[in-house]
Design goal:
The chain is of the alpha/beta class. The longest helix has 27 residues. It contains 25 helices and 19 strands. It has an eight-stranded parallel barrel, surrounded by four helices. Strands 14, 15, 16, 17, 18 and 19 form a six-stranded antiparallel beta sheet that branches. Strands 10-9-11-12-13 form a five-stranded parallel beta sheet.
Length: about 650
């Protein structure tokens, strides 16, 4: 599944970029051209740039299975290519625009906190300002002129980019450029002012008078309404437009990189969880990049994997507090889920003052050796299979969910910072609970974006569509989902809302009775709700979905292990790994990570399997092995 028609979306973005951002007479290169694809797992060492790249150092890095380094901006890269190492370009668009520095952001937050006056909501360095866009493009030009001759492996425009600052809620941007572009955007969506006023419940007399509502203003207007009756358009449309602004900016930068001859994947690092603020509408962002790093918070890893199967994903690893078992486990886990690289933080932790490997580096060596091996190279580009299950990604519901969650905060809603949201936001917890429920039921899944569904795309091969926390749905979506049900698909939702009532009355739609949020809470407490897994399994069976195999610790119930399948032309690669919550991973010590557990995998029919990173061989319906907690059992099943 591809979220959008990427080629069409990128051609449209190229035309927009040429006309609005670049201001160039020459036509842009179509950014829909496929970037260079990584054919092996990449291991980048992040360096501060103050260590000499002498031959001894580079030899040491190769012995640690490091395949490249970062080069920030125009930092010299020739020595790396001469030594057979690659590199990625970091902060190619500079610092301070895509990622607002605290001295730029905080005064606006502080002033708005005091008097809630929208005049404080003009974003510093707004990319809708043509002068700011010119600065971004000129900086990209300088960096690419220096680095393109050395053939970078990838190019990152920035780290932890955001419309605000990470996920901090602030209603940027009310600058004149954003307001003018917002009004044009609204006219395309609503066509007439009468329709807009009816949908927004407003009485604007002219398009030039239209202004968005802040969160405070919409909360004040809707305070006596039940959440199901909210009319959030004046606020939610502005948030959608600002999400579009971040994606539009990335498309402009990617088009410039292609125009300047960059064939490598381009994107950004430090991506945040799906949210109402920050610009993190992942369905839109993933159509604007070729590679990305997203922090595994609020279910973001699975969202990005599902919505952007063709986008190259990497992850940054930091020294673990109780030994490197957690990082070895995560390296394997994210590789099993389709990651194609790792960024090791940093040269000051990987190497000591004399350039020798540290305990942190040596603790990762076995995993990195396997992931950069010839065996891993045969797997790295293979897709992660789903089992006919998809979760519905609705950015509109994410916004509505944020508004409902923040209702109890009163005027302190501005303090719903990212760390608080990840731990408490209902939408994020609901998403994580569904991931684990499906995994514990033995199946894998993908995501489908609401906009793709409304356009008639994305549901091919989906037998069961899960509406996780969906609270708002537009008429085009409802019509597409009803047609999906009539074609024989099934829908499983975890809540009933006014927007879903008619849809969920269909004979092929159902409501999960098990308490989804409690399922995650019980896991966090070390407990389990087997009845919830049994109910999900029953719905899977009604949809004709059978888990390809069942994995469990010998003598234990299901749910201890996750199984991922990577189809190849002549068979399937299976990864069987411990399924732990991130909170649990942090608590385990080195001894626990190194412990082996007996595992059995049961197939519906006999198979012949061989171990991929070992010499084991098995035949039959039941395969048994002892699996270490810090690495998965990886085997290949030949296709008949």
């Amino acid at each position: 599944m591809v979220l959008f028609d990427l080629a069409s979306a990128r051609r449209g973005a190229a035309a927009l970029v040429c006309a609005v951002a670049l201001g160039a007479a020459a036509p842009c290169q179509d950014p829909g051209e496929a970037p260079a694809v990584w054919d092996r797992y990449q291991v980048f060492l992040w360096t501060f740039g103050d260590r000499a790249l002498d031959p001894a150092l580079l030899t040491t890095l190769r012995s640690l299975h490091v395949t490249g380094l970062n080069r920030e901006g125009t930092a010299p890269a020739a020595a790396l290519r001469a030594a057979g190492l690659g590199f990625y370009v970091g902060d190619a668009a500079g610092k301070g625009i895509l990622h607002l520095r605290e001295p730029d952001f905080q005064p606006h937050w502080d002033r708005y906190w005091k008097d809630r006056d929208p005049r404080h909501l003009e974003r510093p360095h707004c990319p809708r300002d043509p002068a700011v866009m010119r600065r971004l493009l000129e900086h990209v030009d300088r960096v690419l002129a220096a680095q393109t001759p050395h053939r970078p492996v990838a190019c990152s425009f920035g780290d932890e980019i955001s419309i605000t600052r990470r996920l901090i809620p602030l209603d940027f941007c009310f600058c004149p450029y954003c307001l003018a572009a917002f009004r044009s955007w609204l006219r395309e969506r609503y066509r007439t002012l009468e329709v807009l006023n009816r949908q927004w419940r407003t009485d604007f007399e002219a398009w030039d008078a239209v202004v968005p509502f802040t969160a405070d203003r919409i909360k004040q207007r809707e305070r006596r309404m039940a959440p199901a009756a909210y009319a959030l358009g004046p606020w939610a449309d502005h948030r959608a437009f600002m999400d579009e602004t971040l994606a539009w900016t990335l498309e402009a930068l990617r088009a410039r990189a292609r125009e300047r001859g960059v064939a490598a994947p381009v994107g950004f690092l430090g991506g945040q969880a799906p949210s109402a603020y920050g610009g993190y509408d992942w369905g839109r962002l993933l159509a604007a990049v070729d590679w990305v790093e997203a922090y595994d918070q609020g279910g973001a890893m699975e969202v990005v994997r599902g919505l952007g199967p063709d986008v190259i994903r990497v992850r940054t690893y930091f020294p673990a507090g109780r030994g490197e078992g957690a990082n070895r486990h995560r390296l394997w886990k994210y590789f099993a889920h389709g990651d194609r690289g790792a960024i090791l933080w940093s040269d000051r932790e990987v190497l000591d003052a004399d350039g020798r490997p540290t305990a942190y580096a040596l603790g990762l060596e076995s995993a990195l050796a396997a992931l950069t091996s010839a065996a891993a190279r045969r797997i790295v580009a293979l897709p992660v299979a789903d089992d006919g299950v998809a979760l519905y990604y609705s950015q509109a519901s994410i916004r509505a969910g944020w508004m409902a969650d923040s209702r109890r905060d009163g005027p302190t809603w501005m303090k719903r910072f990212g760390s608080y949201e990840v731990a408490h936001a209902t939408q994020m917890r609901r998403r994580r609970a569904w991931h684990r429920l499906l995994e514990d039921a033995g199946v894998q899944y993908r995501y489908v974006d609401a906009r793709a569904v409304a356009a008639g795309r994305g549901l091919d091969g989906v037998r069961l569509l899960v509406l996780a926390g969906v609270s708002t749905i537009d008429p085009a979506e409802e019509a597409a989902l009803r047609a999906y049900l009539e074609r024989g698909g099934r829908i499983l939702a975890d809540r009933v809302g006014a927007a879903l009532g008619a849809l969920l009355a269909h004979r092929r739609a159902a409501i999960l009775e098990a308490p989804v949020l409690r399922y995650l809470t019980e896991l966090e407490r070390g407990g389990h709700l087997p009845a919830a897994v049994a109910e999900v399994t029953a719905h899977l069976e009604r949809a004709g979905i059978e888990a390809p195999c069942r994995a469990r610790a010998t003598g234990a119930s299901a749910g201890c292990f996750e199984v991922l399948r990577r189809p190849a032309p002549d068979g399937d690669y299976y990864f069987v790994l411990r399924n732990r919550l991130p909170e649990e991973e942090e608590r385990l010590d080195a001894e626990a990570w190194e412990r082996e557990d007996p595992v059995r995998v049961e197939f519906p029919a006999p198979v012949r399997a061989r171990e991929v990173f070992g010499a084991g061989r098995w035949e039959g319906r039941t395969l048994e092995h002892r699996v270490r907690a810090d690495r998965p059992w990886v085997f290949f099943v030949e296709r008949e």
